[in-house]
């Protein structure tokens, strides 16, 4: 039983550590705004971002993922939308945002 718990915890650590590589099509904030698709702002190590990515599955590739730790403009946009906090995932669709929305809502926005 203890070995299983250790194995599960170790697997979660590996997944969380590798999250920057689990997010497709990462762009800068400027590129993402010009692209026109829904933008999902995220940061490495965020369990809510990982939950969103896993819940969206392959459909998540239709969104543009912007890492706020690598892009100061993106971090600034997230702070402006969230009262000064860098709360992620923050999703922008057609100029409107939702902070930590349910994956079902994001899935609806990504379906053609």
From TrEMBL:
<dbReference type="Pfam" id="PF00462">
    <property type="entry name" value="Glutaredoxin"/>
</dbReference>
<feature type="domain" description="Glutaredoxin">
    <location>
        <begin position="40"/>
        <end position="97"/>
    </location>
</feature>
<dbReference type="InterPro" id="IPR002109">
    <property type="entry name" value="Glutaredoxin"/>
</dbReference>
<protein>
    <submittedName>
        <fullName>Glutaredoxin domain-containing protein</fullName>
    </submittedName>
</protein>
<feature type="region of interest" description="Disordered">
    <location>
        <begin position="77"/>
        <end position="112"/>
    </location>
</feature>
<dbReference type="InterPro" id="IPR036249">
    <property type="entry name" value="Thioredoxin-like_sf"/>
</dbReference>
